[in-house]
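Sequence of RND family efflux transporter MFP subunit (Rhizobium grahamii CCGE 502).
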Amino acid sequence: MPFSIRNMLLLSSMILLPAASAVAQGAPPPPPVTVAKPVVRDVVDNDEFIGRFEPVDEVSVRSRVGGYLQEVHFTDGAVVKEGDLLFVIDQRPFITALNESNAALEVAKSTQTYAEAQFKRAESLATSGSQSVSTLDDRRREWISAQANVRGAQATADRAALDMDYTKITAPLSGRIDRRLISIGNLVQADQSILTTIVSLDPIDFYFDVDERRLLNFADTARRKGQVLQQGGGGVDVTVTISDPNAKPFMGKLDFAENRIDNQSGTIRLRARFANPDLVLQPGLFGRIQVAASNTYKAVLVPDEAIGSDQNERVVYVVGTDGKVSTMPVRPGPRLYGYRVIREGLDGTETIVVNGLMRVRPGATITPKMTELPQERRDTPPDSAVTESGQ
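Predicted 3D structure, token representation.
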């Protein structure tokens, strides 16, 4: 019996020692968590579309006269200026035609001079009664006919000189020229044979299609500027990015919209114009264009890592004045300057958990470590769906 009592006392002391040790040490402190205020700034929503660059002007170079191609004066793919010599058609037949027409003009002028002298002589004789009136009329008719012949010969000579000029084919506009499509020695058909093409490069146009709903947003933005979308595109500022990750966005303006919506697709085609002094943008190049689709408003921005999930909802963890954490459902929007736009759920005055979400639970108490979020984070590229107001 005494042995059993000793065992029971020993066992009781072994059970009570860990509990006493735990009480002596105390409960663990609340976990430290990084918190901050959301970033609030003025933004304008943008819509993004895919489109293609097209030249403002494009021309197929043809010859106005027929003949055999004799000379080519450009390098395939070069940038040419308006008036640069491109091709020369064999000029020898045209030189002969010009000489012949000039000779005919000289004969016509000589005939005119003789007819004029004959008329004046007949007029003098008719005045003195030595020449009949009918003869005077004949001389007048011959002189008038000679004048007409001179005008006809002059027109023929001018046409021959013009054809001679047309044997030298020059660039009708400045831009990049294509390869030559006809080799030297081939017969060129007047107004038919395409010798090459030229496209203008600066400025350059960007065409894209938008649906009815977003078209109304663009039209409203244009109206607030006192403009009409169909008249010059409303002058709405736009940016376009290309596939080169190192290329900065290009700034331009809407300058044209078609006058009706397509019945089948329910879309309308818009055009934006961009300056292209460095000739980086090329016709046919794809790009992504961002067009302002809202008025300026205050946006609440939070880091992506501050947004968690609660079943089918997106939430952020809000810290109260007592250090307790609660969840707040939010509706995320597009990205901007490394942050996520919060459409609904926050007004920007809250203190939210921005780092350490795995260590917090709703209703739990934390040790907040306050930090200030920068206006822009460079670690994440800005999203093209939203731009800062005024840019």
